[in-house]
Each structure stands twice: as structure tokens, then as C-alpha cells.
Amino acid sequence: MTVEVSWFGALCDDDYEQLGVADPARLSSPAHCGAIVRAAEAAGFDNVLLPSGYALGIDAVAFASAVAPTLDRMRLLVAVRSGEMWPPQLARQLATLDHLLDGRLTVNVISSDRPGETLGSTARYQRTLEEMRILRALLDREAVRHHDVTYDLEVDPPRLGTVSGRCPPLYFGGLSEPARDVAAREADVYLMWPDTEPAVAALVADLRERAARHGRTLRFGYRVHVIVRETEDEALAAAAHLVARLDDAVGAEIRERSLDSASAGVRRQAELRDASGGDGFVEDHLWTGIGRARSGCGAAIVGDPDQVRAKLERYVELGIDAFILSGYPHRDECERFGRLVLPHLDHGPLVLGAA
Length: 355
Hints:
By secondary structure, this protein is of the alpha/beta class. Helix content is 39%, strand content 17%.
């Protein structure tokens, strides 16, 4: 089975040699993040996630428009936070970006509070659901007559549509009940953070059932870090080095920076850390130590090339169609994974509608 294998653009000041140890040279900038993205294309990755934050890093859409002309074939998965822009304007922005990428845009919709805002979960996910519906209609070249709780508008699609004339694939994740409902109704690809294999299987089954109630099907993506070395001992040593200078208070401060630091997904990552053994492994080759200094995706696949590949293939057996990988430092691990593992995976851009 062909799966999409993506890397991570590190736009949110999330690049280290050792977690918790500041490195000014690795702070997010157009030059630094551009080098990571171009390294991912050179290594053969299919896509790159460009994350979105506010307090840290650089803007995902602006960065994507700048880096797009430097790419030849790779897609960009551009994160947008619902509510930060009026949906018709966002649709026009995304359509323009899709042209800059020659039709290779994919979109990660994030449901979170806007900077300076605290919105209840019900209202926030209602806003996200409506925005995804409006975006899909406008980017499908349909007039919108939308009268609902958050948005009340009537508007025709912008003159410039996407290259295909269709809405780019919408990637969306979240563990809470409202998040799962939004995904079942409107997402094309449901994204999940690391978890045990039984939990991944259960989540895939649950979302498939929810989507079927709405006459829909979903693809599934898995966001996880990787630490791959020529031997397992070297990989374990690299994991230990990554957290060797991490102060727990610094790690807690890093985790709390995120607008999503109290979400159900973040709580689940903390539960995995608590359930892991003294070595940080919650199951074979899934190490939670990385989450000591990270609010979101908090675990890594650790091992030699064959072990890492086998773990990824196991997730494929559980229903995963796409991977979004990262590792520290991001460019170094990108090139290492691209050399040791990626050539041995059956991968390519995700094709929606293919089961």
C-alpha cells in the first residue's frame, strides 16, 4: 500500500540539538526553515507540514508563498487556525497559494483559541466546522449561502480558484468528542498524535464509524518523531543525548507555551509519559521522553532502520495512510531518515478516494 510520507517544517521555534537548550541559530526564520523544507524535497519526502503558532516562530502562509517557487514536486501541508481570518478571504489566499505550488497545496485546519481569546470548546468547534464547510464550498467553486451560529454570509467564490477547481485535501485532528465529530463531518484526513498500537486501532475504527454515519470515508495520518541510527544502540544513545540537559521546569515552560496546552490530545500525550517505564518506552520502539519538552506530538519511534520501518509498516496495517515525521535537529534527522528508511517505503502523495 502506498502511503504519504511527510516531514515537519519547524516554523514554531521547535528545533534543537538537545531539548530545552536554546540555540539561536536554530530559531525559526525563512532561511532556516527554508533549508529544512528544501532538504525534505531533496530527500524524497512527499509533503511538509508547516505548523502555525502565534507567540513563536513565523507565519505559515506567508512562508509557504515564499518557499513554493523553490520547490519542484513536493507538496506543502499549510496549517491555518480557524477564526484567524474571514473564511472567504482565507479561501482566496489558499487558492492563490495553490497556484504558486502548481496545485500541490494541502491544508491542515487547526481548531484553537485565537491569540488573546478563550472560547468554550462547543463554540470553538462549531466555528471550525462552519469554516471548513465554507472553505470547501468556495474552493469547489460553489456560491455560499451560509447562515449559522458563527458565520452569516452570502458570497460567490473568488475568480481565482485552485488549479484543480476543487478544495485541497483538508487534514484535521483532535481527540475530544467535538473534534471527532468535526473530523467525521468535514475532514479528508484525520490526524492523530502518537499512541499505543491498540489505541491507534481503536481510534481508526471509531472515526471510520463516525464518518460512515455521514456517508463519508476518511484517510488517516500519524504525526510522530523519529530517531533512527545505523544500530539500535546508537539510536538509544541519540535519544538519551536529546534529553540529557533538559531541566524539568524548562520542559514544563515549553509545553505551556502552546495555545493548545490543555487539549484532550495534549492530556493523552501526558498519560503516555506517565504510563511508560523508567526508560520512557510505552511500547516497543515508541519513546515518550521527547514529550517532556513539547506540548503536542510527544513521542518518537526509536531504532535502527529496519526497526523504524517495521514500526511504520505496523501502523499502515492498522489503517494509517500518511505519516508526518520529524526529528532533532530537523534537517539532520530529515536527511538521515531520507537515506536510511525512506527509500525502503512504498510512498507517494496521498490520493483521496483510494481505499
